[in-house]
Amino acid sequence: MLDFTKDTDWYIAPHYFVRKLNAVDHGLINSFMHDYHENYLDSEQAISKVTELLSSVKDDGTNLGKIFTAGLIDKRNAQLMGLICIKPHQNNSCAELKLFLPARGLSLAVMNELLMWVIDHTFYALHFNELQLWIDKRCVNLVTALHKLKLECFEQLSPVVFFSNPAGIHSSIYHLNERQWLNDTASGVVQFNHQEADQYIQEVVRPYFQTCAAAPMYAFVMDFRYETVMATNKTAHSVGLTHWDETIGTSYKYYSRLDLVTWYFGKRYNPKTATAIHHYARKIFRIQQYVFKTGHPASFIDSLPYDKGIQSYLVTYIPVFNASGIVIAIQSVAFDYRLAGYHEYIQNILEQKKFVVNISKLKLSKREDEVLFLLTCGMTQEKIGEILEIKRDTVATIIKHQLCVKFSLPEVNTKLLVETALSYGFPFSIPESLWCPSVVILEEKLSNWILQYS
Questions:
Q1: N or C, where is the chain less crowded by C-beta within 10 Å?
Q2: How, if at all, do strands 9-13 and 155-156 pair?
Q3: Any residues with CB less than 8 A from the CB of 95 and at least 6 apart, and which?
């Protein structure tokens, strides 16, 4: 199983990832600093001040474990596009987060994704309770991205001009508490003692749950750190593990870890699916935050390929309260969910037309499977052609000379073809080529909450 304490690369957006920097990256850092100076500064005095400010990235071993310095990398040319510096501020519960990004070269979308990730990482991977965010006001896209992340939850401190030279970097400072992050009612969130919460989970929740570890069900418990502390063996098997205790420490808060998604999704993780997989994994993490921050249960359909196949689950998160009524954990219960399951209803209607047939003899090609699935979804031949990027005539040929023949239909009749296929039990699943990861929210209140932070 993966070691979540080890450093990895983090996915931010297409072509961009974050990597932790160390002493061997000095050349890369110096090159970035030079470009940064060129973008923002025209004073030798200011340059020396910035160099001093960024010196924390030159780790000499004395600050190991106290400073997190990473770079935003453009993988197309291995160029350093930004610096991220996180270190304790006054005490170990508050982080000082500084972002150094160029005025040009990065889109608003990339900066928005970077901000989302770095705030999540500071709170949930580095375990700080609050942060002070320092940004350069001259980086307009970064300021705009900050506004898009519900700026009202940030407390803006007095603006500071770092340098006496008017041409120096002018920075704004924002304060954010974890209780405020993605929560409109943070004032009503009660703080609790983590040690007492751990004790309650060990003494009350664990004994209750552990009796079902071997039960044939998908279930797990995650604590207030958003980490799995217990699970059933069936849950472990669904993600390729052999025993439930191997799931301990797994978490959706690692939604951007490249080593994690590569391990879970294998060949299904590629440049075409990367953004969707990371975004949907983050969406599930947001749902977990909703349960912790509101105390309400949540249900959704999860269609991510955890078991190396295209499988869907109907998932319900239930808040676990301690004796004081505070949410300290979540219990998850899931069931296999057939996305194409609507056809069972149609099957019942067509029960009298059901044929006795040896399904094993009906071998469909990849293209036939795609066309048949889209037909059962109600698509026209023209629309199927657009989706599969083939001519409408080609779709008609597949229906007439291949599908109708295989289903032993005496004439070309699309409606009868669909009815016959449904009566045989088709579609068995969504064709891989048409599948994309998805998280379907089943509750309006939860959906509205998630939309605020999309």
A1: C
A2: unpaired
A3: 86, 87, 88, 89, 122, 126, 128, 130, 131, 132
Contact (Cβ atoms closer than 8 angstroms) between residue 112 and residue 148: yes
Helix, strand or coil, per DSSP, at residue 234:
helix
Residues of the chain with pLDDT under 50: 43, 45-46, 57, 59-65, 161-168, 307, 340-356
Whether this prediction's pTM lies above 0.85 is answered by: no
Asked if 236 contacts 247 with a C-beta cutoff of 8 angstroms, the reply is yes
Other CB atoms within a 10 A radius of the CB of residue 207 amount to 9
DSSP 8-state secondary structure symbol assigned to residue 45: H
- Domains of the chain, each with CATH number or no CATH: 9-181 (3.40.630.30), 194-339+436-451 (3.30.450.20), 342-429 (1.10.10)
Whole-number pLDDT of residue 350: 44
Q: Are 316 and 299 in contact, with CB atoms under 8 Å apart? A: yes
Write out the DSSP string of 172-190: EEEEEETTTTT-TTGGGPP
Instruction: Measure the CA–CA gap between 85 and 53, rounded to whole angstroms.
Output: 10
427/421 Cα distance (integer angstroms): 7
CB 281 within 8 A of CB 20: no
Nearest to 124 by CA among 249, 259, 21, 22: 249
Q: What is the pLDDT of residue 229?
A: 96
- Is the Cβ–Cβ distance between 114 and 72 less than 8 Å? yes
Distance of CA 53 to the CA centre of its chain: 33
Pairing type for strands 298-303 and 155-156 reads: unpaired
